[in-house]
């Protein structure tokens, strides 16, 4: 069985944000609300043009550990951030 | 080095003000994202996977130490403390906040830098040979001509909304070091039989989903006619380039459709109107621009000094670095130095702010405060006394940037890939790290010899996989990453597009496939003097295919 979450990039800093159950945005994936049908939520979120950019829904599946994970590598990387240690000597 | 005049300063300052206002209007909601997007792109601001990205222009790759320190300041103040040098001799930052970008652009303007035309469907940063002005093999310094093109193409009102982006490269070395054959327009400065300098112009080269080697449109163009001729090419393209299909909108597709002869005819019809017009650069202006690039009076320094020769004999790591990373300078006693940003296991082209500052210090100490960014994602100190090579190398050792791997397998071009890029299908950087770790032994790299290995995370080919001796292309296989291996590309005058070696590989298998390809070359070469590409040209793809299939 699959569900979806709703995501976008935040206008001010471009960071990935997730739609929460109370209709706010969070940078933490753990706060993402899961929907059986997210069409209405995507439509509502898309009207927040001074808050976010590029609203869309991502399909997720439940992993063995019970967590909900995106189906594609692209979306998994988007949730987790770059897979590399990018601040070499920082 | 060119210095801004009052017009340059005014143009850049006005653009900072204009873009600051556009950002404010976007944040307030006065501009929609649809309206704002083309405006931010014209100022080098992308929205990537995790954040905005700011691409800063480094015209024909030339940088002063003061400018590099400013790039470090930008990384530290507005980003996460690092930057990424690109194949277009630019630098990009992966984490700037939109609300900070106007301030970053104002800081850049204070050292005569900007992000204008680093994106969008316009004429991008003109690229050139990183050793322009110092290489022993060059016909003339291409930088004055690159600067003339920069001034002509900056905010050119007719060419601000082209069908697609447009890239120009110019080089003048006996050996092309700017991949001119793979640009929308590639210019080689040549000398004719009468000893006069002129331009051989190629058009319709490019990578992406339709890789093409540029076709010769004119063998010899008089210098004063350059801008009239470029303008004629751009006009034909602007008029007939396809705007209905993004994937068919580059000039190479138009040149394919018309054929080079018909394309040339149309350009010449246009040129007949422009020849002798005000578009042509007056001799006085050519002279004025050249005056900024008068060769530096280098103090006399000993040629092949004893200490340098002794160190080269006694220190294998230094000797390797000298063999790979040094080129001949036009002035005896000097050398051109490549600082490869490719430590084993590192991220190709990434430099931290602290490293930028340290390299700027080295440029001050050993290199007349001058640097270049290269299309291979490295930095260059164009003029270093041979006597100073050892102390310079020792400083680079302490920065972990002293590997003598320039032009060898670990000197990879790698796009940001799926770790950052919204267009990518697969990751590039982790693969580059795995390959450079596998081939970390410098003796092994030197034994393999000159070899280009480039990685792109998608068919847009930002990682130049088409022109690599060994190229890797990331593809999407049902939402997972997969990689195609291509062989036999060449970015130089002997330009060639690499050929597909067979079915794709998983992430787990692709590095083994690279090793099989390298081992096949080693087994087949006639001797150490036959390079990978020479062997490939002699034996063709079949033996590589066979070995790769056997190893599957």
UniProtKB/TrEMBL annotation, chain A:
Taxonomic lineage is: Bacteria, Pseudomonadati, Pseudomonadota, Alphaproteobacteria, Rhodospirillales
Entry's InterPro entries?
DUF2849 (IPR021270)
Looking at the Swiss-Prot or TrEMBL record, what is one Pfam family this protein matches? DUF2849
Q: What species is this protein from?
A: Insolitispirillum peregrinum
- Protein name in the entry: DUF2849 domain-containing protein
TrEMBL record, chain B:
Query: Per the record, a Pfam family?
Result: NIR_SIR
Organism's domain of life?
A: Bacteria
Q: Name one GO cellular component term.
A: sulfite reductase complex (NADPH)
Q: Locate the coiled-coil region(s) and give their ranges.
A: none
Which UniProt keyword terms apply here?
4Fe-4S, Iron, Iron-sulfur, Metal-binding, Oxidoreductase
Ranges for domain Nitrite/Sulfite reductase ferredoxin-like come to 52-110, 345-397
For this protein, the record's InterPro entries field holds:
NiRdtase/SiRdtase_haem-b_fer, Nit/Sulf_reduc_fer-like_dom_sf, NO2/SO3_Rdtase_4Fe4S_dom, NO2/SO3_Rdtase_4Fe4S_prot, NO2/SO3_Rdtase_4Fe4S_sf
A Gene Ontology annotation in the biological process aspect, one of them, is: sulfate assimilation
- According to its UniProt record, which cofactors does this protein need? siroheme; [4Fe-4S] cluster
Question: GO molecular-function annotation terms?
Answer: 4 iron, 4 sulfur cluster binding; heme binding; metal ion binding; sulfite reductase (ferredoxin) activity; sulfite reductase activity
In this chain the Nitrite/sulphite reductase 4Fe-4S domain maps to 119-273, 413-548
PANTHER family hit by this protein: SULFITE REDUCTASE [NADPH] SUBUNIT BETA (PTHR11493:SF47), SULFITE REDUCTASE [NADPH] SUBUNIT BETA-RELATED (PTHR11493)
The name of this protein is Sulfite reductase (NADPH) hemoprotein beta-component
